[in-house]
Structure prediction request, 244 residues.
Amino acid sequence: MAKKKDRGLVQGNLERISSKIFDIYHDEITELVGRQHGVYALYKKNRLYYVGLAKNLRGRVKHHLKDRHAHKWDSFSLYLVRNVNYLREFESLLVHIAEPRGNIARGRFARSENLLDALKKMMSDSDRRRRDEILVATKRRRPVKSKRRRGVRGKRQGAARKQRKPVLSGLFQPGTELRGKYKGADYMAIMDEEGKIDLRGKVFNSPSMAAIDIAGHPKDGWLFWRYKNEKGEWVLLDELRKRA
Prediction:
């Protein structure tokens, strides 16, 4: 059995036709278009002036020769639409894109979600991850001062760094598993009693340093490692950072 051919949304069209056709070929345009519904566009010297919809295309376009749009257009296009369910949104879409001067109202989309807020959040999250990666990379590249020039101040700073607690200190019980995935491979690390991350025998003070050891380049460990929450779900460490 032959597959039924998709008839499409637009079943016929006329493009850039002179407005004079209503006077010269009135019977012909009436027979061709009749009272079919669809979308139309009015032009002035090949520049889009107005977009509209109508259940009687021929009558609506002809009416614009006498209403407030009279003498503001000299040619038109018609698009006969088979399904009228989305006809009004079709008109709104064209007005939003083309912004014709003759359209006072832009129209609305019935159930369309404005994605601007979602985009802003994604951009903010992306910027935060980049800052974290840059900060981690900067820490790794920081030059080590020679012992001769460090003096008493350098020794104090070194002692302070040694005394600094691991990032995840006090957040997990010893033996808690962390899981990560990189390039299709699974990785597991264990939290020790000090809050350090034990990865394949190496110990790290921060999740990002452990993730960098795997990836070989700056990587946000908060968005790499997962832990099992109180519901038994494996979630990103970033959930803890959001609560802070």
